[in-house]
UniProtKB/TrEMBL annotation:
UniProt xrefs under Gene3D superfamilies: Aspartate/ornithine carbamoyltransferase
UniProt similarity note: Belongs to the aspartate/ornithine carbamoyltransferase superfamily. ATCase family.
Catalytic activity entry: carbamoyl phosphate + L-aspartate = N-carbamoyl-L-aspartate + phosphate + H(+)
Chain sites annotated for binding carbamoyl phosphate: R58, T59, R108, H136, Q139, G264, P265
PANTHER family named among the record's database cross-references: ASPARTATE CARBAMOYLTRANSFERASE, ORNITHINE CARBAMOYLTRANSFERASE, MITOCHONDRIAL
Listed name of the protein: Aspartate carbamoyltransferase
Keywords, comma-separated and alphabetical: Pyrimidine biosynthesis, Transferase
Record-level Gene Ontology MF annotations: aspartate carbamoyltransferase activity
Subunit structure: Heterododecamer (2C3:3R2) of six catalytic PyrB chains organized as two trimers (C3), and six regulatory PyrI chains organized as three dimers (R2).
Binding residues annotated for L-aspartate, in chain numbering: K86, R169, R223
Record bears the keyword Transferase: yes
Highest classification ranks of the organism: Bacteria, Bacillati, Bacillota, Clostridia, Eubacteriales
Pathway(s) annotated for this protein in UniProt: Pyrimidine metabolism; UMP biosynthesis via de novo pathway; (S)-dihydroorotate from bicarbonate: step 2/3
Start and end residues of each Aspartate/ornithine carbamoyltransferase Asp/Orn-binding domain: 155-302
C-alpha cells in the first residue's frame, strides 16, 4: 500500500491494512537493527525532535536510536531545562520547533489530546509517544509485533491484560489494536482500577484474574502506579500482589505455555514476580528491541519512505 498518513496519533482510526503495513516495515527494520553495523543513510539530512513533558527512559531512548539508525539528526528537548519552565505554552514551543525546520516531532505529554492539538497546528509529522491516559500507539504496535513473532497469526488468540487499566494508555491502545487483529481481550484487576465502563472498549472485564487465565495465550501485566495505593484505590500492595501479581504458579492456570509481556518499568514483587520476569516465557527485553524496530518503521514511513527499504 502507499502510505498517506501524516501523523501517528492513536490506533482507533487506523485500518488493519495500515497496521499490517507498519508491522511488515518493522520486520525489515529489525533485520537492519540486528546487523553488526546498524546505520543507514536513508534519512540523512532529516531532523527528528523528541519533546517529552514526562519522564521516560525506554520510549525516548528508543525513538532516539530509531532515528539515528536511519541516519536522521535527533534533538531531545529536556522540558525541565527549556522555556516551558518559564511558562511557554505547548503551542509556542511547537511553533518554535517548526521554525527550526524539524521533519518529525515526537511528543509525550500528560494531557490527553495534546498530540492531536500539535498535529493540527504543525506541518511536520507528529508521533504520539503517550498523551495522558488516552493513547500510546507505538507501545501497542510493538506489543503486537512481539506477539506475532512468537505466535504467528493472532486472530482468535486470547490476551489477558491485568493491572491499572483505568489510568493506562497502554491498555486502551492495546485493546483497540488487538481487537482490530481479531484477538479476544480481557481486562482484569480490582474494581477500582477496572471499572465496568471499560466494557465500552469492546473487551471483557473481570475482577478475578484466576478465572480469566485458562486458555490465555498472552498475559500482559501493566505497571501498577504506586501512587494509586496512596490515593485509596488499593488497600495495600501486598493484597494487590496476592490477587493480581503474576507468579509461576498462577500462570500454570492458563493450561499452556503462555507468553508474558510488560510495558515497563516493572515493579518486581508487586505486579510480576522475579521468576516470571526472568523466565523464557517473558518477552520483556524483546519488547524493547522491537520498540526500536517499530519506531524506525514509523519515522521512515512518515518522512516519505515505502516499505521497500534500500540498505
Amino acid at each position: 500500500m502507499k502510505w498517506q498518513r501524516k501523523d501517528i496519533l492513536a490506533i482507533e482510526d487506523m485500518s488493519v491494512e495500515e497496521i499490517r503495513h507498519i508491522l511488515h516495515t518493522a520486520k525489515v527494520m529489525k533485520e537492519i537493527l540486528m546487523r553488526p553495523i546498524k546505520k543507514l543513510p536513508t534519512l540523512k539530512g532529516k531532523s527528528v525532535v523528541n519533546l517529552f513533558y514526562e519522564a521516560s527512559t525506554r520510549t525516548r531512548t528508543s525513538f532516539e536510536m530509531a532515528a539515528k539508525v536511519l541516519g536522521a539528526d535527533t534533538t531531545s528537548i529536556a522540558v525541565a531545562q527549556s522555556s516551558v519552565s518559564k511558562g511557554e505554552s505547548l503551542y509556542d514551543t511547537a511553533k518554535t520547533i517548526q521554525a527550526m525546520r524539524a521533519d518529525v516531532v515526537i511528543l509525550r505529554h500528560p494531557s490527553s489530546g495534546s498530540a492531536k492539538f500539535l498535529a493540527d497546528i504543525l506541518d511536520p509529522a507528529v508521533i504520539n509517544a503517550g498523551d495522558g491516559q488516552h493513547a500510546h500507539p507505538t507501545q501497542a504496535l510493538l506489543d503486537i509485533f512481539t506477539m506475532q513473532e512468537n505466535l504467528g497469526e493472532l486472530e482468535g488468540k486470547n490476551v489477558v491484560i491485568v493491572g491499572d487499566v483505568l489510568h493506562s494508555r497502554v491498555a486502551r491502545s492495546n485493546a483497540w489494536c488487538l481487537q482490530k487483529m481479531g484477538v479476544n481481550v480481557t481486562f482484569a484487576g480490582p474494581p477500582t482500577l477496572v471499572p465496568a465502563e471499560m466494557e465500552g472498549l469492546g473487551v471483557k472485564i473481570t475482577h478475578d484474574l484466576d478465572s480469566a487465565l485458562p486458555g490465555a495465550d498472552i498475559v500482559m501485566a501493566l505497571r501498577l502506579q504506586l501512587e494509586r495505593q496512596k490515593s485509596g484505590l488499593l488497600p495495600s500492595l501486598r493484597e494487590y500482589s496476592h490477587l493480581y501479581g503474576l507468579t509461576t504458579e498462577r500462570l500454570k492456570k492458563t493450561g499452556k505455555q503462555s507468553i508474558v509481556l510488560h510495558p515497563g518499568p516493572m515493579n518486581r514483587g508487586v505486579e510480576i514476580s522475579d521468576d516470571v520476569a526472568n523466565s523464557v516465557d517473558a518477552l520483556i527485553e524483546r519488547q524493547v528491541t522491537n520498540g526500536v524496530a517499530i519506531r524506525m518503521a514509523l519515522i521512515y514511513l512518515l518522512i516519505g519512505g515505502s516499505s521497500n527499504v534500500v540498505a
